[in-house]
Specification:
- With about 80 residues, the chain is mainly alpha-helical.
- Helix content is about 65%, strand content about 0%.
- The chain is built from three helices and no strands.
- The longest helix is centred in the middle third of the chain and has 28 residues.
- The chain is elongated, with a radius of gyration of 15 Å.
């Protein structure tokens, strides 16, 4: 498992796509057989980080679309 961090690009759509792609890659690495739960826990932590990146990208897209912050907050909780 690599510790790659998805960085925001100038284009929030590209940031969202990169985050979703990384999340998909990480979830494919899970082995839920119970043989290596420590590895799966580490993957969960990485998935949570990337999920936050994806959420940030979508919030930024919403702001770019002139959605008001209270509406974004209500929808993203």
């Amino acid at each position: 498992m690599t510790n790659r961090s998805v960085r925001p690009a100038a284009d929030n759509g590209a940031f969202a796509e990169a985050s979703l792609s990384e999340l998909t890659r990480l979830t494919a690495l899970f082995d839920l057989s119970g043989d290596n739960p420590q590895r799966d826990l580490a993957l969960l932590v990485e998935c949570e980080k990337v999920w936050k990146d994806l959420k940030s990208a979508v919030v930024l897209q919403s702001r770019d679309g002139r959605m008001k912050m209270p509406e974004i907050a209500q929808r993203s909780t």
